[in-house]
Amino acid sequence: TGTSQDVADATEYTGIDAQFDFGAAQDITQSSNEFTMNGINFKLKDTGDFTIDISTNTDGIIDKVKGFVVAYNLMVDEMGTKLSEEKYKDYQPLTQEQREAMSDKDVERWEERAKSGLLRNDSILNGTMQSMRSGLYQGVEGVNGQFSQLTEIGISTQKYVSGAVGGKLQINESKLRKAIEEDPDGVLELLFKQPDDDLKYKSESTMTSEEIREKRSQSGLITRLYDNMITGMKDVVFKAGSGSNSSLYSNVSSSIMIDFVAECSSISMLDKETDDLSKEIYEENRHLIDVENSLWRKFTAMEKALERMNQQSASLMQQLGMGN
């Protein structure tokens, strides 16, 4: 809004909203000539047609790829450490009596050793790490860009050894930069491509192994990595339960807890095994009580028989005049 000072009647002129066509179904209006839309900063200074020339932020994309590789490699390190951690067989879980006889520091040191190696060569972690690595190494089917393999954009994997640290990603930055500059959409498609709708929106719990394989083959590498991690997390929940992290699993993927309830009735494999062991212990204790009661009955019968025999012996001795 502006006010003219050059005319006698001091006429007031009121501005109107900026109006422009951004390829939408109808014109777009903004109350200011300076605004941001779809990550693009606009400063409208005149009327008429204009062309927007947008360049790819190559350095920004490289930084994000580097951040992903660093996070992935940290996870590989952590999982490799757990899978190869030494196990101390002499350090068994403490009983309540043992715990009370030790200092808090000694208990802490003991439990640290007792817990060491619990995930050594764990089949779920091993299988998840192998599927994640193979998923990154395999090609993506149905891409429109020029890249279908991770190595084509300058990212390769180290040799992976089961149960040991390995399988980390390495970046050839010059090759990655060239790929982004030549075909940025192709790079994004390689990493984030979604499978066909008939597979994308279908729960994997209702899919056949062939459908899951097809879904993975059509998925971008990071999309595929995410799905493989979800499968690993679901296997962990099915085996060990959700513990206090049910909200965490639900935030990552709602299907984890839904499938856990639907397929397992919220009872993990370990919970079921613990319950079965508790039942076995109960049955064994009941059997021991029955054995104990049987032995006491026999012992009582034997005592009564001995008492009758003693009474008969004493009576016989009296009759034979041997009682004096």
Class of secondary structure makeup: mainly alpha
Shape: elongated
| Number of contiguous helices | 12
Q: What value does the average pLDDT take? A: 85
Sketch the major β-sheet.
2 strands, antiparallel
What descriptive keywords fit this protein?
324 residues, mainly alpha, two-stranded antiparallel ribbon, 7% strand, elongated
Describe this structure in words.
With 324 residues, the protein is mainly alpha-helical. Helix content is 56%, strand content 7%. The chain is built from twelve helices and eight strands. The chain has helices at 58-84, 96-100, 104-115, 123-137, 173-182, 184-192, 197-200, 209-218, 221-240, 246-252, 254-264, 269-319, and strands at residues 2-3, 12-13, 18-20, 28-30, 34-37, 40-43, 155-157, 169-171. Helix 10 (246-252) packs across helix 11. The protein is elongated, with a radius of gyration of 37 Å. The mean pLDDT is 85.
Summarize this, please?
The chain is mainly α and 324 residues long. It has 12 helices and 8 strands.
Secondary structure topology:
Blueprint: E1 2-3, E2 12-13, E3 18-20, E4 28-30, E5 34-37, E6 40-43, H1 58-84, H2 96-100, H3 104-115, H4 123-137, E7 155-157, E8 169-171, H5 173-182, H6 184-192, H7 197-200, H8 209-218, H9 221-240, H10 246-252, H11 254-264, H12 269-319
Antiparallel strand pairs: 1-2, 3-4, 5-6, 7-8
